[in-house]
Each structure stands twice: as structure tokens, then as C-alpha cells.
Design brief:
By secondary structure, the chain is an all-alpha fold. The chain has one domain. The chain is built from four helices and no strands.
């Protein structure tokens, strides 16, 4: 499960960066909102998957509340999921 979480975290982090630094500028500077719709939907699905897997891992691996909170908050901060991967999942 940890390996699957690591993959999901990477994809979720990439999708957030694409949304913030590619799709949003295209929408507001070039009037191309379709990229936000597509990348936003992909990011939303990955975000939900990230949170579900994090919740499952909290139970499965007996994470304390602090670690779980850090993992959850990292999903809304740009580059946060990459930091969590390095901090908690580098040996996988």
C-alpha cells in the first residue's frame, strides 16, 4: 500500500503544479479555461485518492495524528507531497 501511496502522491503533486502554474495562467492570461477543467478534474480525482489512501495507511501503519495531519496538509501545498515522500517514504 505504501508504494501505491507514493505513486499517487507523486501524481497528485504533479497535477497540482500543472494546475497552478500551467492551467491557471492559461485561463487568466490567454482565456483558455478548458485546461483548468481537464487538469482540475484529474487533480481532483488524484486528491481524493491520495486522501483515501492516507486514511487507510493511518489505520494500517498506526500513524499518529501529527503524521497524518502533515500528510493531509501536504496535499494542498505546492511541492508538499514531494516533501512527504522524501520524509516518510524514502526507503520504499
Amino acid at each position: 500500500m505504501s508504494k501505491f501511496f507514493k505513486i499517487t502522491a507523486t501524481l497528485e503533486g504533479i497535477s497540482l503544479l500543472l494546475l497552478l502554474f500551467v492551467a491557471m495562467p492559461l485561463k487568466y492570461f490567454f482565456d483558455l479555461p478548458q485546461y483548468v477543467r481537464v487538469i482540475g478534474m484529474i487533480h481532483g480525482i488524484l486528491f481524493i485518492g491520495y486522501m483515501i489512501i492516507a486514511t487507510m495507511l493511518k489505520t494500517e501503519e498506526s500513524w499518529n495524528n501529527k503524521k497524518f495531519f502533515e500528510v493531509c496538509i501536504a496535499s494542498i501545498i505546492p511541492f508538499g507531497t514531494f516533501y512527504i515522500e522524501k520524509k516518510y517514504f524514502k526507503s520504499i
